[in-house]
Design a protein that fits this description.
The protein has 406 residues and is α+β, with helices and mostly antiparallel strands. Helices cover 50% and strands 16% of the residues. Among the domains are: 1-137, Arc Repressor Mutant, subunit A, CATH 1.10.10.10; 270-405, no CATH class.
Length: 406
């Protein structure tokens, strides 16, 4: 696929992306609070599709570092540090593994503090656009809720680095020196034993307990002697069910709330988060059923699922989908006509395939009363010319056809 046809990353609520080149930069030494701050600002820029935006300092400080007298001062300090931060980013050629370009830049070009309103207007540098907004390939997607739940000093950095590889490879081998450099361990006196105890293990536990990744590692020792020379990491993404459960726990402690000084901006609330996850799980459930008609997720389908959930609970909706799939799977069911997900989500169709619905009741009655060969023949001969039927059978078959095609 040519580069100009690659679909760019489109930010969604709670999700943001960062360039792999940026994530693997040796300049990424922001610390726990600085990394979280950059994540929130990146998500803001991508959702607003703008390099300039305004945030409320109080909400920002509570979101990232919690409530307390020092949190506001800490965010103020980290914002100024981010403004002064210089970055060196190496653009690596994926085919050769060699450096194509070296980019030196700042991410933030200006900060405008409004003491009266308690806000800060942040302008990201134009040169940062290729790493923050114009992401067409080689980027990692993050869920802001996972990232903000990290607690250890080195957890965010380890998570960022692993996410930059997780979509293309599941194993990463690093020398101890490479690992130390990527984690930005400042204490040069650390031997491997201390590095493992104070950096590696706490960061891995943090990532495994609080994010969508599960990571294990193996120590590779020198051929002669017992010195550990390399680390081999095995990375895998957690199952959806595990991630949903973890997110529900995270949401008890993290309220994304609104940090945006813009009345027209869609506020991210806990209710929105839960609704979004439920809608996604309903769409995935339909998509994974073997016989249903597949489609791409769109805003209209999301709205239709949301509308259906106002009348049916989650299990009733899934049960109706399961019943409809069973009908389509029946060997004698040879009709070409199928409901799309949009059609299915019309309330009258959901009602028909509920456990006590007209269509599902007829399906069970027909299946139990008539042999499969007979039913297959009836489906191929909707006018019933090939074989005369008694009035009761004809009425049942006619009613079933009518209910399917409404």
């Amino acid at each position: 696929m040519s580069e100009n046809k690659i679909i760019p990353f489109e930010a969604r609520r709670n999700f943001y992306a960062q360039s792999n080149h940026l994530l693997r930069s040796s300049s990424f030494d922001l610390g726990l609070t600085g990394n979280k701050l950059l994540a929130v600002l990146t998500a803001n820029a991508q959702i607003k599709k703008s390099l300039t935006f305004t945030v409320r300092l109080k909400n920002l400080s509570e979101l990232i570092s919690g409530r307390g007298g020092n949190s506001y001062k800490l965010i103020d300090k980290e914002l100024r540090a981010l403004y002064n931060k210089e970055w060196t980013i190496l653009i690596i050629n994926q085919d050769t593994g060699k450096t194509d370009k070296e980019v030196m830049m700042r991410l933030v070009s200006s900060l405008n503090f409004n003491q009266k309103k308690g806000t800060v207007t942040i302008e990201l540098a134009a040169s940062s656009q290729q790493f923050l907004l114009q992401l067409y390939k080689q980027y990692a997607i993050f869920d802001l809720r996972f990232f903000l739940s990290l607690k250890s000093k080195y957890g965010p950095r380890l998570y960022q680095y692993f996410k930059s590889f997780s979509s293309i490879q599941s194993k990463i081998e690093m020398t101890i020196e490479e690992f130390t450099n990527q984690m930005h361990v400042q204490d040069n006196s650390y031997n491997y034993s201390n590095l493992k105890k104070y950096v590696l293990i706490p960061a891995l536990v943090d990532v495994c307990n609080n994010t969508d990744l599960f990571v294990t590692f193996k120590e590779i020792k020198a051929q002669k002697g017992k010195k550990v020379e390399k680390l081999l990491f095995n990375i895998r993404e957690k199952d959806k069910e595990v991630k949903y459960k973890l997110l529900s726990e995270i949401e008890k402690d993290i309220d994304l709330g609104t940090i945006y000084d813009d009345d027209n901006f869609n506020v991210i609330t806990e209710q929105d988060i839960r609704a979004s996850e439920i809608i996604g799980s309903i769409f995935d459930f339909w998509d994974k059923l073997p016989s249903t008609q597949k489609c791409e997720f769109t805003d209209k389908i999301g709205e239709a699922i949301h509308g259906a959930l106002k009348r049916y609970d989650i299990e009733d909706l899934k049960s109706a989908m399961r019943n409809y799939n069973e009908m389509l799977t029946a060997p004698w069911f040879v009709l070409d006509y199928q409901w799309s997900l949009s059609q299915f989500l019309r309330l009258d169709k959901i009602e028909r395939v509920q456990s006590d619905g007209q269509l599902w009741t007829l399906f069970l009655k027909i299946t139990s009363q008539y042999p499969e060969d007979f039913l297959r023949e009836m489906m191929k001969d909707p006018n019933k010319k090939a074989k005369p039927l008694d009035s009761e059978t004809k009425n049942i078959i006619d009613e079933f056809y009518a209910a399917i095609k409404k």
